[in-house]
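Sequence in, structure out. First:
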Amino acid sequence: MRSGKRAARKYLAELCWQLAQDPTAEWIRPVQGALPEKKREEDCFVITKAAKQFSSPRLQPFGEPTPQQEAEFKRLAQQWRREVMHLSSTTARVRHPAYEKIIQMGPDILGLLLRELAERGGHWFTALERITGEDPVNARDSGSVVKMAKAWIEWGRQKGYIN
């Protein structure tokens, strides 16, 4: 039974991820009282055309990555660092194929990505924004890699992705 719930949660995470990547979708939180409290915490935003109040998509933590995902993330992060370390252009760095593949891995790797940022630094901000649909960086701190990293690490702690 436990593995059935895990599979259902994984499916929901993938569905929410796919929906969150659609820039034309209209999003709204599940209506208060319409779902049991526990279910509401696990569900992502849902598309609705009749909604009057919209908000940006936010993904809930969906669990830990599989060992295969962790190995793939580490391989891609190492490849990205090695191949972009000589580039000064942030645009070129975030358009690198390994960076794009990391983004495509979706919300399951958020903890890995935030730990990588905390331990080794790097310009992971675009990936984090694209995966989460959020940007916790104060506008006055934009451009300061140290302050941007601090904001994202604090966001990760508040959301429970890292300790």
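Second:
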Amino acid sequence: MDKETDEFADFRSVTAAHCDIKCIGREDDVARLIDNVNFRHVNNEFMTELERDKRKIESSTNIFVPADKTRNYYEMHPSDYKKLLTQNVTKSYKHAQEHIATNITREFRDIVDEMKLCNRTDPMRWRDLIKGPILQSGVRT
């Protein structure tokens, strides 16, 4: 780059911008308008109800669970939620007998050994089979 291009790159000017006398009065009017802006408190029933619901949700010890097919949320105690979740997950499945679970664990261990994944998987424990799977949300059924 040459020296002239460098000088104009900063957009600096030695002269001030042209000031029109008509604009000076308008600038004062705009400043006065800004100073005179007043906000008023609006009492809206919907916003009041929304704020009350927000405080109720924040102070609640229960959990809020979304419904399956609607946008509704239901408030329930965590133990009731776990019970309901367990019932819904296991309602169409039979509980396996102990020897079947042992065979599955053995087969899992054989596959892991065969594929050399021992250091990347956690072993299946009988306690996990009894308690049920861990869901994506991290809640154990």
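Remark: The mean pLDDT is 76.
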